[in-house]
Amino acid sequence: MESVGTEALFNLSIRHNPIVEGIRTADYNYRSADTNLFAETDNKQSEESADNTVLLGKQQHWGLHPKTTDEAQVQTTLLNEAVLCRQTVANGSGNVVSMAPMKVFQTDTAFPEAPDGWLVLGMEHSGSRDSAYSHTFTAIPAQHTFRPERTTPRPHIAGTLPARVTAAENCTYAYIDDMGRYRVKLPFDLDEWSPGGESRPVRLAKPYAGPEYGIHFPLHEGTEVMLSFVQGNPDRPYISGVMHDSVHPDHIPADWNTRNVIRTWANNKLRMEDQKGQEHIKLATDYQKSQLNLGHIVDSNRNKRGENGEGFELRTDGWGAVRAGKGILVSAQNQDANGKVLDMDDAIAQIEQALSLAKSLNKAAQTANNHHTDEETQRGRLKDALKDLKEAGLIQTAPAGIATATEQSQLHTANENIHLVSGSHTDITAGQSLTAHAAQGLNLFAQSSSIKMQANQGKVEVQAQNDELQLNALKDATLTSSAGKITIAAKEEILITCKGAYIKLSNGEVEIGSPKVVRVRAPLVVNGPQGVYEMFNNENIKGELNLEYIDVYGNVPDGEPISLLSKQGEKHAISLDQSGKGKLENLNFNILTLTQPQREDK
């Protein structure tokens, strides 16, 4: 086409390019990890593809770093518009002076590809003294939004960069946010920043992590770290490693090359030693010097702690507690490491043997009309609760013995029974007193030997305060006083009998009876009535005391005074009535001496 003296287009050629079916974008944002950042566009149903335009499948983009679903959709739309605006491209030439890039021009005959005209993208101008002005141009249909191609490469950092952890002022511990992120400063950052404001929060890559679990060792100010970058993007750094340096040296020196140690900023540590013959594990904190040592136990100089420094040690300068809700087995029995955890066969066998001994002694005690121990209850507890720790119990066992010691007192208590059984001797020694109290009965039974009770210095006192006292022997019974007297007293009656002969003291009378001869081998002196001194011992009993007095002739000493004197010196006077009776109320019983003046023979 020619134009002489008139502005016109010389030619216009149209090229159709194949396009993709659509654009897909996806990404991941750790700040909102559950947000779906997937977005796509579909060109199959567009008007531009209705004329059998060739579609080349879907184009996918990853890592555009949108923050929200809306941002992802916007990025996808922009990418798709860049594709659509290059689907139809027109190239032409002309001499229209007013034509310029980003202007729209119309042709006399409309093209179906560009019903709204053509948008000029670029032009080349030419002209000289011997040739008229002309230009060439590139245009696209004006109904498309023009998106320029991205030719500038994205910024990219290859490898890692060193940095140091920073913190806010007066921050004693690690300076981290709610997501566990740190602030860092790069060595080439020469600007001054407020403490803790040197960077945006940076994540720390960890060897193990999960929902509400993982490995967390906080980094303190000044720690050297290595920064890596997601897809090399300078705007997406993360801490990929932590380093020691000359200022912050490694806590394991070269000569400790067999040690594996996790040590925190406050010297809490887990140490594992691999040196042959000295393998051990130590878990420790400086607070109260609390430690758990396993294996070869050493001191700070790696020397064995004593000749027996092997096995395990659990120690603390503070309080300690061992709890197991289902039961505890404490055993010094040797066992293979593959054995059952609650292997207590030796202990159970020993307990059963002890209960068998108790059962045999029970039978002997019952034969002797003595009370038996509650052995059956203990046997039931062993079977139903303690064996295999079916219930929450405590079993202690040691083949060479068990000893407990304290400088103060020991308390052993049980809501039910305490059962002590020994296959040989049971010895109880007290430096001062030995006291046994029982709310009901107290039973002692010796099957094949004697019972011996001695008081080396003090007295032996036996009382049946509210019932009978029985002393019985199959053979001889001896009652002696080596250096004193023997007093036998009774309120109602004293009866001494042997083979039908007897002496009876009752109602102030002495009655002697015998089926045979009564022999008196001494001079006989008979006097009139005289005063009586008698001891009543009812210590620590308080109540009413009733007396009745009649002399040996059956006379009532009406009006004669009688007094009781306690060992504390308290004197209680009693007046007798016409029948010889008197009483004292609310008397604190003790050792009392009854006194009556001597009377003449009347």
TrEMBL record:
<feature type="coiled-coil region">
    <location>
        <begin position="344"/>
        <end position="392"/>
    </location>
</feature>
<feature type="domain" description="DUF2345">
    <location>
        <begin position="384"/>
        <end position="522"/>
    </location>
</feature>
<protein>
    <submittedName>
        <fullName>Type VI secretion system tip protein VgrG</fullName>
    </submittedName>
</protein>
<dbReference type="InterPro" id="IPR018769">
    <property type="entry name" value="VgrG2_DUF2345"/>
</dbReference>
<feature type="domain" description="Gp5/Type VI secretion system Vgr protein OB-fold">
    <location>
        <begin position="177"/>
        <end position="244"/>
    </location>
</feature>
<dbReference type="Pfam" id="PF13296">
    <property type="entry name" value="T6SS_Vgr"/>
</dbReference>
<dbReference type="InterPro" id="IPR006533">
    <property type="entry name" value="T6SS_Vgr_RhsGE"/>
</dbReference>
<keyword id="KW-0175">Coiled coil</keyword>
<dbReference type="Pfam" id="PF05954">
    <property type="entry name" value="Phage_GPD"/>
</dbReference>
<dbReference type="Pfam" id="PF10106">
    <property type="entry name" value="DUF2345"/>
</dbReference>
<dbReference type="Pfam" id="PF04717">
    <property type="entry name" value="Phage_base_V"/>
</dbReference>
<feature type="domain" description="Putative type VI secretion system Rhs element associated Vgr">
    <location>
        <begin position="264"/>
        <end position="365"/>
    </location>
</feature>
<dbReference type="InterPro" id="IPR037026">
    <property type="entry name" value="Vgr_OB-fold_dom_sf"/>
</dbReference>
<dbReference type="InterPro" id="IPR028244">
    <property type="entry name" value="T6SS_Rhs_Vgr_dom"/>
</dbReference>
<dbReference type="InterPro" id="IPR006531">
    <property type="entry name" value="Gp5/Vgr_OB"/>
</dbReference>
